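check this one:
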Amino acid sequence: MSIEVNNESGVEVDEGLLVALAGHVLEKMGVNPLAELSILVVDEAAMSDLHERWMGEPGPTDVLAFPMDELRPGGGTGARQEGDAPADPALLGDVVLCPQVAAKQGAEAGHGTEAELELLCTHGILHLLGYDHAEPEEHKEMFGLQGELLESWREVRPQR
């Protein structure tokens, strides 16, 4: 996997941990090892701009996902379903995180900024792989999978 993190937020973020998490999620999801992913970490002003420009909603949000390859037959995202042959490599796209928003949400949830960034990064990757949560069944599937991925991550997560 080629996973690149670009931190433009002005906030210290454990980039190595984000790369390890993303690699774990992509591996668990059966994504081709040659797939590429970009993680961009931005401040609230930049996230507000992206949120307004692409989603038409004011203010910063916690995570945005911008897929690069369209979903196409044969695994254009690099993801595969049970029983499929390994999917073609793909440029998955960008996951954009805002650590300032993650800090607020992590504090409210009682698990801190780093755990919130891990959750948001996983969530963003699932969006890149074609998952959504607009409908109740989609929500159940996506958040169930997100929970499973985070649980498996906690079992292998490097300790500092």
Notes: The CA atoms of residues 103 and 113 lie 4 Å apart. Strands lie at 2-7, 36-41, 63-67, 91-97.
